[in-house]
Amino acid sequence: MELIEISSDEFFNFAKDVQNTFQISLRDKTDENVIIIDEIFKSLENKNAKNFYVYDNGVKIGGVCLLIDENTQQIILIYFIYLKNFIIKAMVLKLGK
Predict the structure, then answer these.
(1) CA 55 to CA 90: how far, in whole Å?
(2) What is the rounded CA–CA span in Å between residue 50 and residue 87?
(3) CA 20 to 30 Å from 82, out of 27, 51, 73, 91?
C-alpha cells in the first residue's frame, strides 16, 4: 500500500467522495445530506491536516484526512474512504492517547 498526498486542487473530488460515503452509509435513514462539503473542506484545509489517497498495487482504493496535534502529536483520523468494487465505507476515529 502507498499513501500519496492529495493536492489542494483535488480537494473537491475528495470531499465529494467523503460526502457520498456518508450518504451511502445512511441511505436507509435519510435523504438529506448528512455532511456538507464546507464541513469537509474545513478539515482538509486545516493547517494541521495531512490528506492522502491510498493506493494498492497502483489502484486508488481510498483516502484519508489526518489531523495531527502539534503539541501532543496525537493523530485524529477525520475521514477515511474506501472505494473498491463500489464498496464505500467511512469512519471517524481518534488514534493515540
Answers:
(1) 17
(2) 24
(3) 73
Output helix, strand, coil percentages for the chain, rounded to the nearest 5: 25, 40, 35
Q: What is the pLDDT of residues 24-70, one digit of tens each?
A: 666 666 666 667 788 888 888 889 889 998 888 888 888 888 888 88
Cα angle vertex 32, ends 31, 37, to 5°? 130
H-run or E-run covering 42: helix 37-44
Q: Comparing C-alpha atoms, which of 66, 55, 69, 72 is closest to residue 93? A: 66
Q: CA nearest 50: which of 67, 37, 75, 62?
A: 67
pTM: 0.71
